[in-house]
Amino acid sequence: MEEPYIESRSYDYIKLRVVPEGSVFVLGDNRNNSSDSRSWSFLPIKNIKGKSFVIWWPPSKIKLIR
Predict the structure, then answer these.
(1) How far apart, in Å, do the first and last CA atoms of the chain sit?
(2) Gyration radius (Cα) of the chain, Å
(3) How far is CA 58 from the centre of its chain?
(4) What totals of helices (H) and strands (E) does the chain contain, helices first?
(5) How many domains, in total, are found in the chain?
(6) Domain span at residue 1?
(7) Is 18 helix (H, G, I), strand (E, B) or coil?
(8) Any idea what DSSP says for residue 35?
(9) Phi-psi region of 49 (alpha: psi -120 to 50; beta: other; left: phi over 0)
(10) For residues 45 and 22, what is the distance between their CA atoms, to the nearest angstrom?
(11) What are φ and ψ of residue 39, in 5° steps?
């Protein structure tokens, strides 16, 4: 995928996996320096504590989520 907005290319190889039901695969926004599902696998949904309340990006789509 072409991503002209990133500073440095990621050379990680992620093998194809099926995410188990009740889990998510999470990626950090600093992909070359993030500790995320690439290094520690899937995250059980029951471990997610937060709740989304706003869409922030792109600016043309900023809005509160009800």
Answers:
(1) 33
(2) 15
(3) 16
(4) 1, 4
(5) 1
(6) 1-66
(7) coil
(8) -
(9) alpha
(10) 6
(11) -105, -25
